[in-house]
């Protein structure tokens, strides 16, 4: 495991973008695992800039999103499909047929999870998985206590996660209580992983994930067992290392 401590959010975002850009330049047909949330927005802005300047081409890239809320359609402004469109996909040339996001409106959520996992396998697995980090150490929507052996699955969100995501909604009551998410086993199957964390509120989780015991109570701690992981964090998030 490597830790790249950056002075601030902007430097963290640039460093992460250079890692992703290097992956795509070396392997134009890369399969990328993509997160949502406020932390990767700077990364996506940098990737858009590199694309617009002619330094990157995503025309052969395949993308799989980490998760999606159950009950939200792709056209809902609060959905992760909408987030990806507004923050990345509408600005770069990832072909629409290569953009994969779990179907939040699936009538058979468990079947949708199995279908999504098969698509990842059919694509040859994920070459570079990008992760954010929750305050409680969750990755994707894999909450504390999740089984490490799970693939893509349906999960009920904790009250802490609902409250943390409420800032994107009009009220906490509007936040969906369930989501489809890549499981820990899906994430650990990626060839390379980078994790982004920003802000003092993430410092405890970063320290525990890097140095603490490997435990389902802090899902990100499992990354200690992956052969190629890089934490890209800002100064505040790395302050307790």
Given helix and strand content, the structural type is: alpha/beta
Q: Supply Rg.
A: 17 Å
Categorize the overall geometry: globular
Strand content: 15-25%
Between the first and last Cα atoms, what is the distance in angstroms?
A: 13 Å
pLDDT < 50 stretches: none
Q: What string, H for helix and E for strand, traces the elements in order?
A: EHEHEEHEHEEHEHEHE
Largest sheet: spatial strand order: 1-10-9-6-2-3-5
Q: Characterize the main sheet.
A: 7 strands, parallel
- What is the helix fraction of residues, given as a range? 25-40%
Number of strands: 10
Mean pLDDT: 95
* Count of helical stretches: 7
Describe this structure in words.
The chain has helices at 9-26, 41-52, 80-89, 109-122, 159-165, 184-188, 203-211; strands spanning 2-6, 31-34, 62-65, 67-69, 99-100, 128-131, 153-156, 178-181, 192-197, 229-234. With 241 residues, it is α/β, with parallel strands linked by helices. The strands form two sheets. It has a seven-stranded parallel sheet, with helices on one face. A three-stranded antiparallel sheet has the order 4-8-7, with helices on one face. β9, α7 (203-211) and β10 (229-234) form a beta-alpha-beta unit. α1 packs across α2 (41-52). It is globular and about 40 Å long. The two termini are 13 Å apart.
Features:
241 residues, alpha/beta, seven-stranded parallel β-sheet, globular
List the helices and strands and how they pair.
Elements: E1 2-6, H1 9-26, E2 31-34, H2 41-52, E3 62-65, E4 67-69, H3 80-89, E5 99-100, H4 109-122, E6 128-131, E7 153-156, H5 159-165, E8 178-181, H6 184-188, E9 192-197, H7 203-211, E10 229-234
Parallel strand pairs: 1-10, 2-3, 2-6, 3-5, 6-9, 9-10
Antiparallel strand pairs: 4-8, 7-8
Helix pairs in contact: 1-2
